[in-house]
Design a protein that fits this description.
Length: 637
């Protein structure tokens, strides 16, 4: 059962109990969000997730039977294509379970990088692979384009039989639902329209992949029911209430970010939490930022703007356990912390429910609707506009390396950096704008596989974090557009964004009539659209489109970023030294003036003690008589 190591009771817990927030959420009472007509209307449409454990909206027996039939038919690989909420929970479940099950190899494809797509096509045997296309609306651009690319490759091997290797998970009546039924796909699983994507872990979007991966569905749902009962109770020991109060009360104290710390196995849970928190709460100028990958040594001193949520997970290797424990030992004890533990994949169901209830309650406390994502829709519209009208012109292009000509980089920036004329000046302006309480995000539409790529990208991210002492996030495009992208645009203006994309050395063309001519062009349009949307909201952002995405090019860019950071701190040190010298000169001048004034005051004081004020003429007459007397005495002598 859910357990938490909590240091104290946070005041907002009493507020939530008094408002009966937990039980009202379970009852799907949208009036909890009556702080605005829009929020209440949205809640009325999207609270179907609140009782999925006790009242499932799908046939669990049918899902289990289907998954068993697929495996018995010789399928040994599942390729899940989707985006956002359609993939985050399945990826969490299947990756966490990977250590304990060999039933099938489960792959998730939510990247439109041709490098990643080619990798998936290489390792998947079409004859033994089941492709699941998961999309609530059925119209999200990334799954549609990825389906086109994967289907074209599979048809070369399977011909018309390819449809028996396709499965759709989508809401009833969507274009994907219609296509799958008309073409006779192997199966179609209908979602529940009142369940939003990021709240869909316990719906068909999470349960079908879980069953295929070999999860014990009865045990999984038993854990879910137990958690739902606990999290829907209006009690001070409700774990969801405690989590919501921890997040909200620390938010009120300026801790509007939290660092997620866990051993390697649990990190995939962070991706799901990141989307749920950022997309649900990051709007109307409010928001709480999850920082899901962090070097704990950055927390040896309390930065004052974040809290910590720590998850212990089942870890078989003693060294991994010890390494994680040592990383926690150096964290400043002044930083508020919650500690959780997950031992089995079935226990994930409990934490899905706890977090969903907690974030729904946080939305109530913060006065934001946790069920919509207005800025995600705005970014999608910008991308479609760019695909239709063409790429916007960059502010300038230049050869971005001095020693080796690796080609031109296209540089586009927000109006706040107007006047920058070269890459160094642009990056200098971007990074030097980071202030205490800000966060930095590297939004990368790049492949994360292949030698040197990930290392170079991490070098840039960690370099900024260590140098500026700020939260530094690595966001994978286009995934983040459906996740933290909402908070980046709709939350508080505390983000500094470097967006990266690159030309593809071997792009993957899409069929005629597709929304984009190729996957590479789609990724570039998404990066450009992200900058346009961020800039319209007054965010500090720069988009660099590189000549290619090779590891050596990314390493060279990382060196450029390092050099810029070094120059910023050199200039700051020189400015500080100059200011100190000026202060010393001013202090010396002040000492001289004060000494002179003191001397004059002392003379005045001495004269004041030994003389009396007399008439000037009388003084002159007395002096003359005294001189004559002295002369007479000298003459007699």
């Amino acid at each position: 059962m859910l357990s938490v190591d909590i240091e104290k009771l946070y005041p907002a817990a009493k507020t939530l109990v008094k408002a009966r927030a937990a039980s009202r959420i379970h009852a799907k009472d949208a009036t909890l969000y009556d702080f605005s007509e829009e929020a209440q209307a949205c809640a009325e449409q999207f609270m179907g997730w609140a009782d999925l454990a006790s009242a499932p909206q799908c046939d669990l027996a049918a899902i289990q039977a289907f998954s068993d039939e697929v495996v018995e038919a010789g399928i040994d690989t599942i390729l899940l294509i989707g985006q956002g909420g359609s993939t985050q929970a399945p990826m969490t479940i299947t990756k966490y379970n990977k250590h304990d099950s060999t039933r099938v190899k489960f792959r998730t494809l939510d990247s439109d990088s041709p490098v990643r797509v080619r990798e998936m096509l290489t390792i998947c045997d079409p004859h033994r692979t089941l492709v699941i296309i998961s999309s609530k609306s059925g119209g999200t651009i990334e799954p549609r384009m990825l389906l086109e690319a994967v289907r074209a490759a599979f048809e070369k091997e399977l011909g018309d039989h390819v449809v028996k290797h396709l499965v759709a998970i989508t809401d009833p009546g969507s274009d994907l639902d219609k296509q799958a039924r008309e073409e006779g796909w192997r199966a179609v699983f209908s979602g529940e329209p009142t369940v939003g994507g990021r709240f869909s872990a316990l719906s068909v979007f999470g349960l079908v992949p879980a069953a295929l991966a070999g999860i014990d569905m009865e045990a999984f749902m038993a854990h879910a029911r137990e958690a739902e009962e606990a999290c829907s109770e209006d009690a001070i020991d409700n774990p969801a209430i405690n989590l919501a109060a921890f997040l909200y009360d620390n938010y009120l104290k300026g801790r509007n970010k939290f660092s997620f710390l866990t051993p390697k196995r649990g990190r995939v849970l962070g991706l799901w939490i990141e989307q749920l928190v950022a997309e649900s709460l990051g709007k109307n100028g409010e928001g709480i930022l999850p920082n899901i990958e962090i070097d704990s040594l950055l927390l040896t001193d309390d930065p004052g703007d974040r809290s910590i949520i720590m998850y212990q997970t089942q870890t078989d290797l003693w060294d991994e356990r010890r390494n994680f424990e040592m990383s926690l030992a150096y964290i400043d004890s002044a930083i508020p912390r919650l500690n959780y533990r997950i031992d089995t994949v079935e226990e994930l169901a409990e934490h899905f429910i706890m977090w969903e209830y907690a974030i729904a309650m946080c939305g109530y406390l913060m006065g934001v609707c946790p069920f919509d994502q207005p800025d995600v829709a705005s970014a999608k519209a910008e991308v479609l506009e760019i695909l239709h009208n063409g790429q916007p012109e960059p502010n300038f292009t230049e050869v971005f390396t001095e020693d080796v000509d690796m080609g031109n980089v296209e540089v586009t920036y927000a109006p706040v950096f107007e006047g920058c004329e070269d890459l160094h000046e642009t990056l200098y302006a971007l990074l030097s704008s980071i202030q205490p309480g800000d966060f930095f995000a590297l939004n990368a539409f790049l492949p994360f596989t292949g030698e040197g790529r990930r290392e170079a990208i991490e070098q840039m991210r960690h370099g900024v974090a260590e140098s500026f002492g700020c939260v530094s996030c690595l966001e994978v495009g286009p995934r983040y557009l459906h996740s933290t992208g909402q908070l980046q645009k709709g939350g508080p203006n505390m983000g500094v964004f470097l967006i990266l994309s690159a030309d593809e050395l071997k792009d993957i063309p899409l069929p005629e009539g597709a929304a984009a001519p190729s996957l590479g062009e789609l990724a570039k349009a998404q990066a450009a659209g992200d900058l346009v949307t961020l800039a319209k909201r007054g965010r500090r952002c720069v988009h660099l489109h590189l000549p290619d995405n090779s590891g050596v090019t990314l390493r060279q860019l990382a060196q450029v970023v390092d050099d810029v950071i070094a120059d910023i701190f050199t200039d700051r040190a020189l400015a500080e030294a100059a200011a100190m010298a000026e202060d010393e000169e001013l202090a010396e001048a002040t000492v001289v003036v004060e000494t002179s004034a003191s001397t004059e005051a002392a003379i005045d004081a001495e004269l004041g003690d030994t003389t009396e004020v007399v008439d000037v003429e009388d003084a002159l007459e007395a002096a003359e008589k005294a001189a004559q007397a002295v002369e007479g005495e000298q003459a007699e002598a």
